[in-house]
Design goal:
29 strands; mainly beta; four-stranded antiparallel β-sheet; Methylamine Dehydrogenase, Chain H; 349 residues
Length: 349
């Protein structure tokens, strides 16, 4: 008997996702990571099945015509009845262990993935493995790649962050950051004409901001293990997901706590990530009960809850373009990835 999913939303705002509009097919195991490419055209998912998949979340797969379903909000629908988004590419070359994290460069030419203790660098176009970078003593939790693919980043359970030269063939990291006292769970880089920032978050409860040009380190302690992190577009505020069940919004300049969000999502056993909408109006987080919760960033309360996954939803991604801010992709340990939106007409052939 095929499982039936209840995919529901608490309607609050027409600009928010209100229903499931597609599924991402192909994975055979828990999906641990999901990311949009910088232009928003594609989404990348990584799974315990030791593959990374590239899909177009807003285009239908002609090989799987959508079934006939009633129009309007999907109050009760099987996953099998959702149309399948268009698969583009499958990456498995050089991947020997379950995927824990994925990232794509700004030109969508290079993909990096954490595969146990190895950082795998893949060519997006040829799907071939370009490099396998080793040195971590524990599982890689988060990865990143800067503009132009000049530097690859990896953060690990071994409490270290490694920076790798993307322009050479050297197997050694160009820098190792060892200030964390526990597993490093999040990492991202910020670059401009005037600064190069590496920001990390750790189970020790501290957000560390490294200014590499100035040789400075800023530490912000939230007093709870951090599992997810995302910054506003102006880099002035940072949202962090914590194991105590709270999602916190920090003022990076003052180091002050601005908001506290905890009334809808559940946390404590799994590492949940979070994402900000393109206009920085909403924070989206996964939840251990399988839901996706959307909080109003200024009001401090949940305004939408998307229900349907049967196991923890640990990874979420929001479309980076304001015109498609209602598009959210959720990935779950139940092996499914769902595209949510406010209108099924978003999907195209």
């Amino acid at each position: 008997m095929k499982a039936r999913f209840r995919l529901k939303a608490r309607l609050a705002n027409e600009s928010l996702p209100q229903e499931p509009i597609a599924k991402l097919g192909g994975h055979d195991g828990p999906i641990s990571a999901v990311e949009f490419t910088h232009d928003g055209k594609y989404v990348v998912t990584g799974s315990w099945d030791r593959t990374v998949r590239l899909s177009n979340p807003l285009r239908l797969d002609p090989a799987h015509p959508p079934p006939q379903v009633s129009s309007g909000h999907h109050d009760d629908v099987r996953l099998e009845d959702l149309p399948q988004a268009l698969p583009i590419q499958v990456y498995s070359d050089g991947i020997t262990h379950p995927i824990s994290a994925v990232a794509v460069d700004d030109q969508s030419t290079t993909l990096v993935a954490g595969s146990e203790k190895t950082l795998v660098v893949l060519d997006c176009l040829t799907s071939q493995c370009k490099r396998r970078l080793q040195g971590h003593l524990g599982r890689i939790n988060a990865v990143g790649v800067n503009k132009g693919s000049e530097v690859y980043l990896s953060a690990s359970y071994d409490a270290s962050v490694r920076l790798w030269d993307g322009r050479s063939r050297s197997p050694e990291p160009i820098q190792i950051l060892k200030e964390a006292k526990d597993s490093v769970t999040c990492i991202h880089s910020v670059e401009s004409e005037y600064m190069t920032i590496i920001r990390t978050a750790s189970v020790d409860g501290i957000v560390r901001t490294y200014d590499l040009r100035m040789g400075m380190l800023q530490c912000d302690d939230v007093h709870s293990p951090i599992t997810g992190m995302c910054a506003t577009g102006d880099q002035r505020c940072l949202a962090v997901n914590c194991l105590d069940g709270a999602l916190r919004l920090l003022d990076l300049e003052k180091g002050a706590l601005l908001r506290h969000y905890a009334d809808e999502h559940t946390a404590g056993q799994y590492g949940l990530n979070c994402a900000l909408s393109a206009g920085d109006d909403y924070i989206v987080t996964g939840s251990e009960d399988g839901s996706v919760v959307i909080y109003d960033i200024s009001k401090g309360r949940a305004c939408q809850v998307l229900e349907g996954h049967r196991q923890p939803t640990c990874s979420v991604a929001v479309h980076p373009k304001v015109d498609f801010a209602s598009v959210v992709v959720s990935a779950s340990f139940d092996g499914t990835a769902i595209v949510w939106g406010n209108d099924t007409s978003l999907m195209q052939w």
